[in-house]
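Here comes a specimen:
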Amino acid sequence: MKHILLFGAGKSATVLIQYLLRLSQQLQWRVTIVDGNAGSIQEKIMGNYPLVKGAIINLENETERVAYIQESDLVISLMPPALHIIIARDCVSFKKHLLTASYIDDSMRALQPAIEQNDLLFLCEMGLDPGIDHMSAGRLIHSIHTQQGIISSFQSHCGGLVAPENDTNPWHYKISWNPRNVVMAGKSGAVYKQNNEIVSVPYSSLFAKNETVSIPHFQSYVCYPNRDSLSYIGLYDLQKAHTFVRTTLRHPHFCIGWRFIVDWQLTNEEKVYATDGLSIQGFFLQHFSSLHIDSAYELKPDTIIYNQLVYLGLNDNNTLINKGLCSAADVLQWLLETRLPLLPDDKDLVVMMHELKYTIQNQSFRAKSYLVVEGKDDSYTAMAQTVGLPLGIAAKLILEGVIRLTGLHIPLSPVIYHPVLSELETEGIRFTEEVELLS
């Protein structure tokens, strides 16, 4: 009997867990879900699933952690990225396959020889972005290359957004995934290739100038470059492309406001504030005065950023933070969680689009491949669908022997993306492609 072990039962795990519950019934597989929060597990596995169990563990307790890993055939980690390596080392030791939705980092790369030596598959970047973006782009690029096409420009855009009918605040944004990741987004800056030039954008400028991206038959957003695009040029086999960039989509007002958030060091993790008994207004006054910012002068009423900060509590002298010693980033995260939540009937939105320019036999084309997924409510979100389902589907295909790769991979091999994308389509996650002949 196959046995899947899942670490993590948070926001992004909802749909993955529902998928694993279905597998346990259909295939008679065991599923174990471990997390540090009993409530997160209980609310997601309500019902009669005799082969599914939940367990509360401290991930840093080696005895508990190892006992669960030893019993499994395959491990999925939805823990914070920094914790994957703890699980990964155990998976190598006990010869278990591992799936994550996070970027491959240096600590994971260091395990590559041992992964290969033990004939294991460690499949990372297997969520939405990264994940579905790799697979859908890989399929499109491969299709063009098989037609002897030469791709000159590749741009890939993805955003976790709020559905238009639930866009009810001046940020035009609501939290549908890990709020800490929202706060930290872009801190490492970005680097990409444009018109055969390498463009490096520091964090301080990342949200200052944004291009508009129009989604066919939908609406327009703005984008900012996402991390290190250059590292994917070789992986995508697009060394000849003069433009290669991966971006994040947001509403224009979000980027206008977030530029000030960055400029005014509200994502700073170093300086701490004593927040017990401190109102939100008091925090902003302390923070701005420490930066020698005259908030009365800088924050003019009825500007976009003024309205956004008022929504977060700029003038709220009644609500106390009461979180002990906190950095500005900690306070900002708490404000996002409390002021920008998805309400029970709210729907989030995932939007992804690839734009390619290429030539085949001296004819020039522009291709757009795009995806729009709308969530059902604040639990069954589009984000949870698009992050969780690729992991669940890949786990199933690996244990069934459909995917037989070994080593450390991201999903850019046809033996991964063809079957996974095919099954994603049965779950309603389907790309639309439009190709235009250019004069």
User: Anything to note?
Assistant: Residues 33 and 54 are 5 Å apart (CA to CA). The chain has a mean pLDDT of 93. The radius of gyration is 23 Å. The chain has two domains: 3-124, 132-374.
